[in-house]
Design goal:
It is a single chain. The chain is α+β, with helices and mostly antiparallel strands. It has two domains: 150 residues, Helix Hairpins, CATH 1.10.287; 94 residues. The protein contains four helices and eight strands. The strands form two sheets. A four-stranded antiparallel β-sheet has the order 1-8-7-6, with no helix packed on it. A four-stranded antiparallel β-sheet has the order 2-3-4-5, with no helix packed on it.
Length: 304
């Protein structure tokens, strides 16, 4: 077990006290971005549904218009045939006397009677006019919906780009702070130790099925992935076994102990085949020690 006062080589740095706030800020920004993306998707989906419904209505109106046009054409053809038949009948030779037909003979030069217009034609024409108006209104609504959908997409795209820039800036700042608080070498660890009230315990542990004591915790390396620079580790903390899987190189592992004022930090800064090396950063003083210091009265001073 490495000595608390010795500073071995290749020990990484610990995160600054405000690391948790930075992580929370980054997580909050990511949540906001996710909510905006979900809201954008739902709104766009709603617009697509309305557009599809209006398209179906447009198709229905077109079908009804075609059917009315066919009916109007059929009625017109029947009326034309009827008028032609009546005209041909009237053009035939009239009977010798009106008594034989019960009708008065038409005088020379008298205008031929005009057949009455079928009221169904007016009704069909009225329906056809209404269908055309409805179809034009639907097309205008579709055009407005397309314009609104385009504007909405542009606005959502701008908001998403703005939030992406903000989140990327937060991530960049967080990475910078993490890089300045993790020691990659023994000299950096020495400098990091001078900046805070922490004890640093360096270790180099092979993969095995036995725990090895490192500072306030015990570690057992279960798996080492040299190719992907990750590892699995079991930790014995306050008589409880904790497991961490697929931990990356330089990735901080925070361990909460019962008698420490802040979490203990585990950093692995070197991964070899079946072996890892790094350090544990722990507060110099325990909660019990801090409480005893706070409860101890200061020595009385005599004013001369």
């Amino acid at each position: 077990m490495p000595n608390q006062n010795s500073m071995p080589e290749n020990q990484p740095p610990s995160l600054p006290p405000n690391h948790e706030h930075n992580i929370m800020g980054w997580a909050a920004a990511a949540v906001v971005l996710a909510c905006l993306a979900i809201g954008s998707f739902l709104y766009a989906q709603h617009q697509r549904t309305q557009f599809a419904e209006m398209a179906v209505t447009n198709q229905t109106l077109n079908a009804s218009l075609t059917q009315l046009q066919e009916q109007l054409q059929s009625v017109t053809e029947r009326l034309n045939r009827r008028i032609e038949a009546e005209t041909a009948a009237k053009a035939a030779p009239a009977p010798a006397t009106a008594a034989t037909t019960g009708r008065a003979a038409r005088k020379p030069g008298e205008a031929r009677p005009v057949a009455a217009k079928d009221p169904r034609v007016d009704a069909l024409q009225g329906q056809l006019s209404d269908q055309k108006k409805a179809l034009a209104s639907t097309r205008e609504d579709l055009d407005r919906t397309r314009d609104d959908l385009g504007k909405t997409r542009d606005e959502l795209s701008g908001k998403i780009d703005s939030n992406n820039d903000e989140v990327n800036g937060t991530i960049g700042r967080t990475k910078d702070e993490l890089n300045t608080s993790i020691a990659h070498t023994h000299d950096e660890l020495v400098a990091l130790q001078k900046r805070g009230e922490k004890n640093y315990f360096e270790f180099a542990i092979n993969k095995s099925k036995q725990f090895q004591k490192v500072g306030p915790v015990s570690l057992e390396v279960r798996k080492v992935d040299f190719k992907h620079k990750s590892y699995d580790v079991d930790m014995l903390v306050d008589d409880f076994t904790l497991q961490k899987r697929k931990v990356n190189l330089y990735e901080p592992v925070w361990i909460n102990l019962t008698d420490t004022p802040e979490p203990v930090q585990l950093i692995v800064n070197k991964i070899d085949k079946d072996k890892i090396a790094g350090y544990i950063a722990a507060p110099k003083y325990r909660k019990s020690e801090l409480s005893q210091t706070a409860s101890t009265p200061a020595p009385s001073q005599t004013v001369q």
